C-alpha cells in the first residue's frame, strides 16, 4: 500500500468507497416530460411530478432506463432484468413529493468493476451497484437572512447512483476512479460529466484503520463537486479521523459537508436526525422489467470504451501509457486526436494536442468540446511544420494568436511574416559563414569535442533569426563538419 | 410490541406532525390499541410467501424521451404560500 | 319546475334527446335542490360552470350533432378529483385553498362525455373514514331517516359520503367516488344506492388525490345498476399518465343487460358471517341467495380462509402508503402553511394544524410500521398476508363466477356513534376490504331494508376485469328486491 497517513501512533491506511451521482443526459426527466435543460428560468421546467402536485403520477422514461443499462454494461456489470422502485422518505424543501423515488433492494444494475491506473500499476475497483433515482431541486440558502429559495427545475431529473466497493485507498485513487468513470460515462454518452454544473457529483465514504485491522467507522462527505475537492476533502477528513482516534476519541458515523473555502469538512446540520428513510416499494410503479433483447441491443450499440481505445491507441499510434490515458479520458479529445493522426506523424500530433492545445484550453478554462476549435485548424498548422514551411518553435509562438484568428494557416503565417528557411543552399551559406567565424572551435570539434555541435546549431539559428529549418541545419552541419 | 412516549415522539418527528402532551397520551393509547389489533397477523404463517407489491400485473409501459410541458413557472407557483422572484420561499435552511 | 327526482341517467338521456326538457332545466332543478339542501353534501359548488356546460349540451342536442354519451347529465364530483380551475380540497384544511391547474383523467373523461359538473362533493379527509365525519368541511348527513321516531341524523357512510348523500337526496343524478377499502360501496349501501368499485387499474388514478396508491380506485355512485354501467363506461380508460392503468380492452358495459345469470355459480364465503353481523342483514343475504337460486344460478359454498386478516392487513398497508403520499403536504408548494421562522416548526405545525385527527392517526401508524425495526414485522408481513388473501380469491374463483356477500356488517348509524374507538369505525369496512386488497371489482346494490326502513346493501365481487358479471348480478338484485 503506497499511501499511508503518518500519525503519532504510526501509519494509517485509508479506506474509501464512492457514491457517484451522475445525471443522465436525457431530454426529459426520469418520471416526467419536463425538460432537463440547464440554466432555465427558475421553476419553468417543472411538471406535476416534479413539484409533487396532488394526484401527480410518475411515468418512466425509457431512454433513462437504457442509459443505466448501457452504463452497467460499460462497467462490466450484471444487469438485473427485474428491478423495483422504492420511495425514500424524508422532508426537505427541495424534495417536493416528500420522498425520492429511488431503488433500494433491487437496483437495475448489480456487481461490476472498472480499472484505474495507479503508481503500482492497474487496480480493479469494484462497483457494488447502480440504481436509478430522481434528483432533488435546488435550494439557495445564501441570498437572504431569513429565507431559503427553492427552484425545482432539477427536481426529477434522472440520476444514476454508482456505488463503488470500499476499494479506494488514496486521494489519487479516488481521483483516478472519478476520472475513469467520467471518461466512460462521456464515451457512452449517458452523462455529460460536467462537475461544475453538478451533473456529476460524489459522496465520499472515508474511514481509516491501522494496516491489517478491521474497518473503522466511516463518515460520508456529501456532494463534492470537483476532482480537486474530492482529493482535498479526503486528505482533510482522513487526517481529522486519525487525529481524533489518536486523541482517544471515537468517530461518529455522520454526514459531513466539504467547504471549498477552507478545505475542511464539517458536520452537516439540519439533516433528518434519525436517517430513518422508511424505504418501501413505490405503489405507483410496477416492477421495471427489461428483456434480453433490449440488453443485447444496447450491448451491440456500445461504442469503443476508454480501456479498449487506450489499448488500440498504444498499438496503433505507438503512444506512451500516460499519453494514451489522457487522450481517452474525453471522447471528444480522442476523436479529435484521431482526426489529426490519421495522415500525420502521431508523435507530433500527440505532443501538440496534449501540450499546446491542452495548455491553451487550460489557460482559457475551456473544454475542447465547447471551444469550437476544429481539428482542421490544428491540422493545417501541423502540416506547415511537417512540410517545413515553419518550425515547431515558430508554430508554438504564434499558436494562441492563430487559434483565435479566422485566417487560414498559410495566410496567417504569411501575414505574420513567419517562415522557415528550408533552402539547402541558403542554409549551407549560413553554416559556412558561421564555421568560418569559428575556425578554432571547428578544430576542437573535429578533435572530439562533440558538444560543440549544439553551439554551431545555435549560432546558425541566431544568424537566421530563428527562421532556419532546424532539421536541415542539423543535417547540413553534420555533412560539412565531417568533410 | 408496544408504543411508549419515546416512540410516539420519534414517529411524530419522522412524520413531521407536532403533538402536545395531551395528544401524545391519547395517541399512545390509540396506537397501541390499533397495533395490538393488527398483531393478529402474527398468527398467519407466511414463511414461504412472497410479499405482494401490487395487484397490477401488467408490464410497465415506458415513455419516450420527449419534452412536453403542460405547466409554466407561473402555474407551478400559483398555489404557493410564499414565493418570490420565481422561487418558492421557505424559512431558512441551516445545512 | 318539473320534478326530476328519481330520474335515472338513461331515462334522462332519452328525454333530453326527445327534447322533453333541456339540460339547462335539469341542471337548474338540481342546483335549486342543492341550494335548499342542508345535508352538507358539497364543499364547492360550480353552478356557473354547470349552467354553461348545460347550455353547451343543449346546443349540441338542438343541432343533433356530436351528442356525447352523458350529454347534459348533471353529476357530482368527489372532491378527491383534481378539477382544473376549481378548488380541490380532499376534505382537508391543508388543501383548503388549493386550485389545481390540471384535470384528473376521470373528471376529464366525464366532462368530455358531456356530463355537467354541479360541484365537488364532501368526503372524509383524504378519504380516510367510514362515516364522513372526518371532513374539515363538516359532517355530511344521510337524507334517509330511521323509521323510529325522533331519531338522530344518520351518517351517509364514507369516505364518499357527500357523493352518496347527494345522489340519494336527488341533488345530482350520479356522482363519482373513490374506493380504497370500501369508500364507494359502504356509503352506497348506507344511502340505498348502487356503488361500483372497478378492478384496480380500470380507471386512471391520474389527478385523483392519493390515499393508498395500491388500493385507490375511482368508481360511480348511482341510483341504478344501469347508471353505474353508463358512468363506468365514461370513467374507464387506459391512461398513459398512470403506470398502473390497465391496457386490457374496455367492454361495452351495457352488455351486462344481455348477460344470462342462469347456470352461473354464485360463491358464498363462509368466513363472511362475521361476528356482529346484523340479523336483518343476514336475512336479506339469505333472501338474495334464494333469489339467485330461483333465477337459475347455482349456489356454491367457498372458503376465503384469510378473511379475518384482511382488515389488519389493510390498516398496515393503507396508512403506510398514505404516510408517503401525504408527505407532500408540507406548506412549501401549495396549501395551508403555519408560518414560522424555523423550517422544522413550519413543517410540524403546518401538518399538525392542517390535518385532522384521523389523518394524523393514520400517518403516525403508517410511519411507525415502515420505520426501522418494525418494517418486517408489520409492513412486510402485511404484504405477504395480502398475497394470501389474493390467492384465496383466486382459488375461490375456480369454483364460482361471482361472490355474494353483504356490503356492511351494519346499516347506517347516527352521527356521533363509533367516534371514540377508531377500531370500531374501522370494522365498518370488514366486508369490503378483502376485495380491495385483491384489486377485484365489486358492486354494492340495495337488496332490502331493515325493520327501521334503512337500506341493506349486498356486495357482488367479480374476477379481475369482469365488471359485466357483477353488473348483471347487481341488476338481478335490483330487479327483484321489491319482493321484500
Description of the structure:
The complex is a heterotrimer of chains A (483), B (95) and C (484). Chain A contains 16 helices and 16 strands. Chain A has 483 residues and is of the alpha+beta class. In chain A, strands 1, 2, 6, 7, 10, 11, 12, 13 and 14 form a nine-stranded mixed β-sheet that branches. A three-stranded antiparallel β-sheet of chain A has the order 5-4-15, with no helix packed on it. Chain A has a two-stranded antiparallel ribbon with strand order 3-16. The termini of chain A are far apart. Chain B is mainly alpha-helical. In chain B, strand 1 and strand 2 form a beta hairpin. In chain B, strands 1-2 form a two-stranded antiparallel ribbon. Chain C folds into two domains: 248 residues, Amidase signature (AS) enzymes; 159 residues, Amidase signature (AS) domain (Amidase signature (AS) enzymes). Chain C has 15 helices and eleven strands. Chains in contact: A-B, A-C, B-C. Chains B and C meet through helix 1, helix 2, helix 3 and strand 2 of B and helix 9, helix 10, helix 11 and helix 12 of C.
Strand order of the main beta sheet of chain B, please? 1-2
Strand count, sense and closure of the main sheet of chain C? 11 strands, mixed
**Radius of gyration of chain C, Cα only, in angstroms?**
21 Å
CATH superfamily of the largest domain in chain C: Amidase signature (AS) domain
Instruction: State the CATH class of the largest domain in chain C.
Output: Alpha Beta
Distance between the termini of chain B: 36 Å
In one word, what is the shape of chain C?
globular
Range of strand content of chain C: 5-15%
Domain count of chain C: the total is 2
Just give the CATH class of the domain at 5-43 in chain B: Mainly Alpha
Query: How many E strands of chain C?
Result: 11
CATH topology of the domain at 5-43 in chain B: Histone, subunit A
Low-confidence stretches of chain C: none
Oligomer: heterotrimer
Question: What is the name of the CATH topology of the largest domain in chain C?
Answer: Amidase signature (AS) enzymes
Q: Kindly name the structural category of chain B.
A: mainly alpha
